[in-house]
Amino acid sequence: MHCSDREGFFNHDFHELIGLIYDSVTSEQGFFPFLQRFIQVFNGHSASFAIYNTAENALLGAWTVNIPEEALRFYSEHVSHRDVLVEKAISVNRQGSCRFVASNLDLGPDVKRLRRDTRAEEWLESYGACEAAGAIAYMDGHYLNFFGMQRSPGQPEFSYEELSVFDGFLPHLHRAVGLYTRLMQRRCGPAVERLVLERVDRGIIICDASFRVAFRNGKADDILKRNAGLWVNKDGMLVAHGNENARQFAVLLSAAVEASIARRELDDQVFSLEQGPQRITLIVTPLQGAAGAESMAQGVLVTLHDWSWSNEINDDLLKSLFDLTDAEAGVAAELVGGQSLSDIAVTSGRSRETVKYHLNNIFRKTGTSRQGELVSLLSRACSSV
User: Fold this and answer.
1) H/E element holding 304?
2) Cβ-based neighbour number of residue 106 at 10 Å
3) How many domains does the chain have?
4) Are residues 258 and 121 both part of a single domain?
5) Distance CA 323, CA 326 (A)
6) pLDDT tens per residue across span 76-127
7) Residue 200 and residue 75 share a domain
C-alpha cells in the first residue's frame, strides 16, 4: 500500500470497515459483509473468519467469501488439524504479540514443506488461491477465532506494511467477537452449546453431576452402538463393561465431577477400553462453566476416540509427523492407548520423572499442554494420514 493509498484509506475505508466489524455483532449475516468489503479494499481473492476448537484440532464453523463449500469441507477433513499458518499465529499470540502472519513472510522453508505435506497448498490451489495471511482475532480457553485472507497467483504477495495495517483491525475484532459471543449466549444458551457439540468430529458425551448422561452427539451414538465396552445403563448413567473397567472408569468420573463442582483444575484423564477387536480411548475432563451460568456448567465431558475406523497409532508415524525421538514416540503411543504415566514407567522400565520429561518434550513439539489435547491431536492427525 503506497503512501497516497494509505491517506485515502484512513480517511474513508478504515472507518467503513470498523463500522462493519461492529455491525457484525447484531447482523443476521454475521461477519460476512465485513469480509466481503475487506477483500475489496485490500485486493484479496477470498477471506474467512473461522471458529476452532484447539483441544480437538477441529474447525467448528466459519464465515467465508469466495471459498466454495467443497473446499471448506476439504479443509475441515484434511487440513484443519495441522494448519501451519494457524499454528504460527497461535505461537505468536502465546508470545504476547497479537499480529498478522503471512505464508510468504513468516513460514520458513521447512514449514513450507510441511504445508505441502499437510495438503494446505492443495486446498488453496483447489479454489484458485496461493498465499494466505491471518491472525488470532479472539481466544477463550480452547476456542479461537482466526481471521484469514487469501490471494491468487495473479495478485501481489503480502507485505509487512500491509500486515501492519491489518493489525489495526485486531482490537476491534476482538471486542466485536466478545460482544457477539455474549449476545449469542444470552439469546440461545444451551442450544448453541448443543449445536457446536453436534458438529465436533469426535464422540462427545456430557454427564451431569449425578453421573447421568445429559447430552451425547451423533458420533457418540455411533460409537456406543458399535462398541460393547461402553454403554448407558437403565438409569441413564455411562458405565464401562467388566468389573475392573467399570470401577476404574467410575473413579475417573467421580474425580472429574468433584473438580467441576469445586471449580478446581484437574488434568485430563485418559482411559482405554478394548472389547474384542474394538478399542476406544476416552478423555475425561471436568466441565468448568462460568459461575451462575445456566448452561452445562457442572459435570464431566467425555471425548471418545474410536480406533476401529482409524489407522493404528505407531511409533514411526508419530516420529515422522512431529519429529519425535524413539523414546518420545513410544510414550506418545502409550498415552493414546490409555496408559497413565505410572503405567508407562513400569512397562518401559523408566522412572516416572523420565517419562514426564519425555511428555513435556512431546507437549512442546506438538504445541499442546494437556494430555487430552495431545491425544486428540495425535489421533486426528494419524487418522487423516
Assistant:
1) strand 300-306
2) 19
3) 3
4) no
5) 10
6) 888 887 788 888 898 888 888 889 999 888 887 765 676 677 788 888 999 9
7) no
